[in-house]
Design a protein that fits this description.
Mean pLDDT: 83
Order of helices and strands: HHHHHHHH
Radius of gyration: 17 Å
Shape: globular
Low-confidence stretches: 103-109
Number of domains: 1
Number of helices: 8
Strand content: under 5%
Largest sheet: none
């Protein structure tokens, strides 16, 4: 049991890293600040708590029933890996060009579930990564990775102001673009693995 746990740690780290990069809480800090700038501290805390809980529930749902959805629609995992890899690659390219992938920032009043949880934290890229992690690793590792990533997200949102002061807007944008390069590399791996398994 202990040896099995130790042997799964590298896979867990890979799953956490791939999901954390696409969720990108550090790169999204300037946007999160702007979305909640008119809120009181209590309202902002409640908004971020709602976003974190919503994100966890949504990704866990995809982790647990994602493969059943494929069976229902007759989609093979190999096809999804290729399509998902292409999607992640497009997201990475957009992040490299614009520093962010979201289409709209919304107003400070329309926050919490939308747009912070969906689609800012949990968008197509995060959903794709979660489902692909099930195929590459397993459900247990994927579920644990979701919980770890959103614990980090919660910590980030809890201390968003001091983190933003430390990084600054330029620092956040640099982090976002570096992560975009890593997302692109992960996307290529997904595409190649999907092609190999066809």
């Amino acid at each position: 049991m202990y040896e099995a746990f130790l042997s799964s740690i590298p896979d867990l780290i890979r799953a956490v890293v791939s999901l954390f990069i696409i969720v990108d809480p550090l790169g999204n800090i300037p946007i999160l600040i702007s979305l909640t700038e008119k809120m009181s501290e209590k309202e902002r805390r409640k908004t971020f708590q709602t976003a974190t809980v919503t994100g966890v529930i949504l990704l866990l749902a995809f982790a647990l029933v994602g493969q059943q959805i494929f069976i229902l629609f007759g989609v093979s995992m190999q096809s999804f890996m290729i399509a998902g890899g292409i999607l992640l690659l497009l997201i990475a390219v957009k992040m490299l060009i614009t520093g962010s992938w979201e289409e709209t920032r919304g107003s400070p009043e329309s926050v919490g579930t939308v747009p912070i949880a969906i689609p800012l934290l949990v968008g197509p890229g995060a959903i794709t990564t979660t489902i692909l992690n099930i195929r590459i690793f397993n459900v247990a590792i994927t579920v644990i990775s979701v919980l770890i990533v959103f614990f980090i997200v919660w910590i980030t949102l809890r201390f968003i102001d001091p983190i933003y002061r430390l990084l600054g807007r330029s620092g956040s944008l640099v982090i976002s673009r570096v992560m975009a390069l890593i997302i692109a590399a992960i996307a290529v791996e997904y595409i190649l693995e999907g092609i190999r398994e066809l």
